[in-house]
Amino acid sequence: MSSTLKSQIQQFYDASSGLWEQVWGEHMHHGYYGPTGKEKKERRQAQIDLIEEMLNWAEVSNLGTTPKPCPKILDVGCGIGGSSLYLAQKFNTQATGITLSPVQASRATQRAQEAGLGTEVQFQVADALEMPFADHSFDLVWSMESGEHMPDKEKFLQECYRVLKPGGTFLMATWCHRPITPATGELTADEKRHLEEIYRVYCLPYVISLPEYEAIAQSLPLQNIRTADWSDAVAPFWDIVINSAFDPKVIVGLFQSGWSTIQAALSLGLMSRGYRSGLIRFGLLCGNK
């Protein structure tokens, strides 16, 4: 990962993570609002529901009951430890989280200690394209909305595959653009401009379609590959985030967090409009080694 992009991502999350936690809590990802996105629920519960729905979809709900000694989980792009701690507690096992943000790693470590999981759950600053782990280290490699930040999608999946144990599961959710098919055609100039604005605001190099991720997974080669498009289920999230931005304490927090966070808040509509137009998609992929 280029030093410039690394620095941009680090600074973005160093600046914004504290405000996000204050307003939304420890889970820094979409929520799940039912298959059609019509279910009404408390926003943090929707985020927890997304984790549970993904686990059920990937059929990894028995991770903690398998005969394997001490199953280990890797959370790639761990934020402030929301998924890492949730999964470690759910499966009564060990978890490791990596992030480019020292602020996130420090806060995640603090949260693990507060939860009494300081020895079971560890966090560190690391590049997902050059992970500091041996081959075959983890039973579950989990990536919740971090793939969009990766400047080399193939290298990212290769690294996740490398550190996965034989028989282990890789499970990811990531931002994608719509599939390019003979029926839909190539991305239009307007669509490309829309994506470029999202890239600029959220420190993304580029996104790809879910079929492109599937092709990379097949080349690894992952086994039992499955994909799903949950765009309808998560799309309401962005309008709810927009509404929360009008809270006075959020407005104060935005100014304290700096320009990159303010710019991201002012641009929330980019994602909402992207979902409505069908340009932005929420893709899931899982497979076994």
Keywords:
12 helices, methyltransferase, 18% strand, alpha/beta, Rossmann fold, single chain, transferase, S-adenosyl-L-methionine, Methylase involved in ubiquinone/menaquinone biosynthesis, 7-stranded mixed sheet, 289 residues
3D structure, described in words:
With 289 residues, the chain is of the alpha/beta class. The protein has a single domain (3-288), classed as Vaccinia Virus protein VP39 (Rossmann fold, 3-Layer(aba) Sandwich). Helices cover 47% and strands 18% of the residues. It has twelve helices and seven strands. Strands 3-2-1-4-5-7-6 form a seven-stranded mixed β-sheet, sandwiched between helices. Helix 1 (3-24) runs antiparallel to helix 10 (248-257). The chain starts with a helix and ends with a strand. The model has no long low-confidence stretch (mean pLDDT 92). Residues 163-172 are annotated as: SAM motif III. Belongs to the class I-like SAM-binding methyltransferase superfamily. gTMT family. Pfam families: Methyltransf_11 (PF08241). Keywords: Methyltransferase, S-adenosyl-L-methionine, Transferase, Ubiquinone.
Largest sheet at a glance? Answer: 7 strands, mixed
Q: Helix proportion of residues, in percent? A: 40-55%
CATH class designation: Alpha Beta
Oligomer: single chain
Measured between the Cα atoms of the first and last residue, the distance is 25 Å
Q: What is the CA-atom radius of gyration, in angstroms?
A: 18 Å
DSSP helical segment count: 12
Strand order of the largest sheet: 3-2-1-4-5-7-6
Total domains = 1
The CATH topology name reads: Rossmann fold
β-strand percent reads 15-25%
The assigned structural class equals: alpha/beta
CATH architecture tag: 3-Layer(aba) Sandwich
Label the overall shape.
globular
User: Order of SSEs, N→C?
Assistant: HHEHEHEEHEHHEHHHHHE
Number of strands: 7
Mean pLDDT: 92
- Residue runs with pLDDT of under 50 for 5 or more positions: none
**CATH homology group:** Vaccinia Virus protein VP39
Pfam families: Methyltransf_11
Protein name: Methylase involved in ubiquinone/menaquinone biosynthesis
InterPro entries: Erg6_SMT_methyltransf, Methyltransf_11, PiNMT-like, SAM-dependent_MTases_sf
Family: Belongs to the class I-like SAM-binding methyltransferase superfamily. gTMT family.
